[in-house]
Amino acid sequence: MYCYCYCHYYLGKSVWFDAGAGYPIAGEIVDLTRTRISIKSLLNGKIFVFSTDDTNRVVSRIPLPPEGVNDMITMSDLSEASILWNIKVRYDHRQFYTYIGSILVAVNPYYMYHDMYSTDYVRKYENILVLHTLPAHIFATASTVHSKMLSDKINQCVVISGESGGGKTQSTKLIMNYLAAVNPGKYKLITEQILEASPLLESFGNAKTVRNDNSSRFGKYIEIYYSQKSIVGAKLSDFLLEKSRIVTHSNDERNYHVFYELLEGFDTEEKRKYGLTTPEKYFYLNQGASMAISSKSDAHDFQSLLTAMKILNFTKNEQETIFKILAAILHLGNIYFSRSVDDPGHDLIQISSKTEIEWCSHLLALNDQGLLQKLTHKVTEARDERLLSPFNLEQALDSRDAIAKALYSTLFSWLVARINQIVRVNNNVDNSIAILDIFGFENFSTNSFEQLCINYANEALQFHFNRHVFKLEQEEYAKEKLAWKKIDFADNTDCLDLIGKKPNGILQILDDESNFPKVN
Question: Which end of the chain has the least Cβ crowding within 10 Å, N or C?
Fold first, then answer.
């Protein structure tokens, strides 16, 4: 904070003050003497008193309009405190969207205001060419992108980023719903199929975390193709599926939604068919002690999943194969091992859950003995012979979990490929609108390799943002010798180099180390 002499202040003056909360608070001066200044917080109405020795804790504030500012690029004070306060003021007036130039800032109210996304709102924002002619809204961004694609004949892209629980997945769906609503073409089925891909992938790629009941645990890049102003197809790319969640998750979290939806949606006969019971009976599901989500009906969502599969033309045989793989993963997680020691003192591993082995073999159409061998022995090919080395207990558990992760990640990749097969483009394409939905920075009590990859991807995205919004713009101003005030921004190039630059970046070192026969 900057230092100010109290002679600059008067009763009723707007200020920022430091109450020790870790961030500036907006307030107004309500009393002023030679030795102290009293400030009323606009956050909670409390009175805070500062002595004249604390001049560095009170700073002048430029007051905002009662309803806040729609586009913060027009604010004369662009400090962090002012930006955050403006977003709060607008939030209090049920304005959850705010512009920073062409960037839309969205605050998740954790409640669906259906009237804000109705057909009337679609018509209100349709065909906008200039963002700021109407109040900030996700439909305004979607409309501008759509209009620019049609008028300029240039491919467009919307990048959605933010912290976990910020509403990125919902924002993606809202943009796609808008594009579907204004689509005038005759390809209504392909548009519906593109929309139904979202709930299907949510079931398989989303999970409850500590911060978000419906957290996307993978990134996706959706390209929507147009021909003669109509949607004619799409392509979906996925990346960074959180594989570790398949076998373990923290307290108060869940595995992927689809497992719970399956167990709640199946009737008694279907459960018997796949050897299934209730979620708390499965090791891969009960580690977080969080079986149900108050805001979500797993049984209802399972019906939505079946509807999506039907619209996307999944055959009965394909659906049954999917359910078999999911059930096999649950049975696989319940396989446990017993350990004994032979005369030389070597560990001997035996599987003590024969029923689970039989169910896994049956559902995956495998030989019992082949699966047992895969779980308990390492197979090494040496010329014309196969050498079997017994696992210890830790290796056996790792082998079990690795098979489960491989099954699920392969199934997920197949689902994406199958969706792309259904919504692929069958005619010429003029232009496209792409949407990047990537998870935000994550910092949990226990972080894993997934968090490193997720945060590295976000650092790269931040670099892209900095480069295009700050660096290139300022270089262009300097090149054209325009009068401008330099804006300092945090350059994260060093962070990116530390993690990913060859030959000494962390990821490269991990790669090199992993190639050695006996890694640390």
Answer: C
